[in-house]
Design the sequence.
């Protein structure tokens, strides 16, 4: 049976959908409007089931095949970023300070292309789950989706995702087995001293010196390159000391550092080293301290058999593919679907010479929508959902 293909009117509708979503971006965990819009679009395509409110605002559309077979989950993301868009496309964000600058609007359009095709040609075997996941950018969404009680009934055998990637040749597929995204977490260090009059700082305990010591020593936990098994990177992202007042010697400070490692096991050692450093400096400076962690991402690991389906799909589409440059230093929560039992893999799809992800002038290239839909369709065929 020939595979279904997007028509020109599909591509026009999907491009319109992307622009509509782009105009009304919502940050992680607050994607209620986006989820409602997507759920309405999906219901019009008559899947066997639509689930809403998964792990927050997650939406899933499910198509059942005529015969038994594997359950395949395809994933995109609902959330935008708290960044002001400086590009001026006709579909520019209408929400001050929030914009789709990671291309998740384009990823939703690509997945909705698959939904349009499934509505005309349901799976022959197994089951397809189109997952519109919330809160990817802060690392909370995939974990919350797989922890949702309704996820157990989905139990995907396979899971796949596509992320667009500026700087890679347009349509090139970047994929490998093993680690593809680093583990990372935000470490927030609070230092507690005692304020004093600025004319008599000796009567208080200032965390200024400790803050100045910790910035370079924590940064120095970094080492290696991302291809090394023990790659580690610590990046100071924010610091605050006292209050903006000339009359007060400071009594408190806060330091934010993002810790990053190639794999989860490296993160444990990095946390221990960072906490020991903070403890030593705080004790030497007679300060109290506490540490909390935020935006926790495990490393993302690609299953080798799932990768084989991706490379087969790329070849069927006539797309070039390579593994150079992986793993990425950045983090991604898609690995949670693999940890929950699916054979999972994600690929990076070249978006050409455009602004980078999270740049204020980034905009997803519309021509990538049919490419992404096509790759997902070929993956479904390779896994056996549409095979005769
Ligand atoms: Zn992003
Ligand atoms: Zn993204």
Sequence:
């Amino acid at each position: 049976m020939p595979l279904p293909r997007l028509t020109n009117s599909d591509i026009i509708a999907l491009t319109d959908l992307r622009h509509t979503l782009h105009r009304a971006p919502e940050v992680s965990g607050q994607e209620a409007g986006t989820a409602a819009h997507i759920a309405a679009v999906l219901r019009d395509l008559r899947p066997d089931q639509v689930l809403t409110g998964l792990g927050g605002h997650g939406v899933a559309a499910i198509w059942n095949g005529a015969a038994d077979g594997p359950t395949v989950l395809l994933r995109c993301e609902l959330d935008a970023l708290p960044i002001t868009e400086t590009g001026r496309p006709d579909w520019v964000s209408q929400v001050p300070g929030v914009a789709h600058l990671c291309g998740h609007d384009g990823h939703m359009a690509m997945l909705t292309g698959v939904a349009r095709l499934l509505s005309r040609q349901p799976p022959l075997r197994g089951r397809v789950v189109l997952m519109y996941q919330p809160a990817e950018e802060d690392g909370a969404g995939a974990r919350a989706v797989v922890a949702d009680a309704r996820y157990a009934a989905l139990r995907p055998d396979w899971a796949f995702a596509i992320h667009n990637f500026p700087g890679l040749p347009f349509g090139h597929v970047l994929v490998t087995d093993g680690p593809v995204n680093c583990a990372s977490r935000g470490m927030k260090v609070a230092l507690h001293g005692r304020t004093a009059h600025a004319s008599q700082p000796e009567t208080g305990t200032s965390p200024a010196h400790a803050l100045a010591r910790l910035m370079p020593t924590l940064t120095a936990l970094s080492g290696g390159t991302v291809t090394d098994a023990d790659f580690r990177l610590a990046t100071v992202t924010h610091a605050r000391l006292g209050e903006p007042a000339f009359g007060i010697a400071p009594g408190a400070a806060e330091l934010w550092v993002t810790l990053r490692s190639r794999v989860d096991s490296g993160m444990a050692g990095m946390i221990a080293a960072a906490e020991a450093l903070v403890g030593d400096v705080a004790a030497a400076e007679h300060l109290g301290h506490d540490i909390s962690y935020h935006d926790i991402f495990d490393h993302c690991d690609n299953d080798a058999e799932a990768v084989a389906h991706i490379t087969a799909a790329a070849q069927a589409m006539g797309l070039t593919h390579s593994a150079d440059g992986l793993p990425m230093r950045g983090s991604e929560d898609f690995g949670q679907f693999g940890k929950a039992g699916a054979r999972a893999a994600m690929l990076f799809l070249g978006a050409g010479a455009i602004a980078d992800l999270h740049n204020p002038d980034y905009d997803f290239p519309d021509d990538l929508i049919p490419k992404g839909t096509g790759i997902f369709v070929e993956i479904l065929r390779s896994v056996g959902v549409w095979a005769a």
